[in-house]
Amino acid sequence: MTKPTEFKAQKQSLPGQQSKMKPEPEVIRKGYKGSGKLKEKKALITGGDSGIGRSVAVYFAREGADVAIVYLSEDKDAKETQRLVEKEGQQCHLIKGDLKSESFCKKAINETKEQLGGLNILVNNAAVQHPQDALQKISKKQLQETFETNIFSFFHLSKLALDHFKEGDTIINTSSVTTYRGSEHLVDYASTKGAIVGFTRSLALMAAKDKIRVNGVAPGPIWTPLIPATFDDVEKFGQDTALGRAGQPSEVGPAYVFLASEDSSYITGQFIHVNGGEVVGG
Ligand code: NAD
Ligand code: MG
């Protein structure tokens, strides 16, 4: 397990690439045993090239699922996720493009169905964040980019996925602890993450009649490419949590396995808080 002190002086102005992170995030817990919880399931994971999304892809594969991942531009990272999934004996289809475009969202859903032969699990996980210390500094362009990426794409993909979903299929949305406690430097980002909570709860009620479940995960500080790419001071990242350290993606992935599998068959409209011990409402 990586200790927070090892992040020391690691501010890296890198283009969000996992392969360049020091230390490299842990993708899956050593010795994690799959038990076929997602056997024969087909999953689409956005932002599956790196960080939490990569971890979800590899855990899903170990539990028997084939996956497709959407990513923006990080070819090297995406190929590494593919390699890790294939090592588990499962398929991994790569889909590169911009989720801000509704027609690309359509392509992603259709390709997943065609390449994997179905779609049972949608993980809406891709996001951007651009810290600003004053509201005046959040430009209209930034506001639009953040909302189009972080929440509009969740609507587009979910809408299209529901056309294919059958009883027992699931949607899992990634929110953030910033929704529940606020964030002084991520006002627009935290707003989209709050919208995801409302979206999840409402869609869960709407889809329940078709026996489709919709849940989410609200991570706290997790060591992923998003962090050194967007924050100046990563030295203390995660140290203010009860557990006193940042989490690894490998500690987040199992929450998605739980929500995607029948283990959570009586849970819908809920969030799991993988945040190192911060008690938050809902
Ligand atoms: P990450 O950078 O590894 O993953 C985000 C991915 O989103 C990128 O790899 C990128 O390919 C994809 N993406 C971004 N914009 C896109 C677009 N327009 N089209 C297609 N793909 C796009 O970072 P991560 O930390 O693993 O983030 C995953 C999720 O976890 C995000 O929703 C983030 O908000 C959430 N989260 C992360 C933390 C944390 O501390 N890392 C905390 C709370 C919530
Ligand atoms: Mg990435």
UniProtKB/TrEMBL annotation:
Segment Disordered: which positions?
1-33
Family annotation (PROSITE patterns) = ADH_SHORT (PS00061)
| Keyword Oxidoreductase attached | yes
Q: Report keywords, A-Z.
A: Oxidoreductase
Which Gene3D superfamilies does the annotation name? NAD(P)-binding Rossmann-like Domain
Q: Which SUPFAM superfamilies match?
A: NAD(P)-binding Rossmann-fold domains
Q: Which Pfam families match?
A: adh_short_C2
Q: In terms of domain of life, where is this protein from?
A: Bacteria
Q: Where is the composition biased (Polar residues)?
A: 10-20
UniProt keyword annotation of Oxidoreductase present? yes
- What PANTHER family has UniProt attached to this entry? NADPH-DEPENDENT ALDEHYDE REDUCTASE 1, CHLOROPLASTIC, NADPH-DEPENDENT ALDEHYDE REDUCTASE-LIKE PROTEIN, CHLOROPLASTIC-RELATED
Family, as annotated: Belongs to the short-chain dehydrogenases/reductases (SDR) family.
The name under which this protein is listed is SDR family oxidoreductase
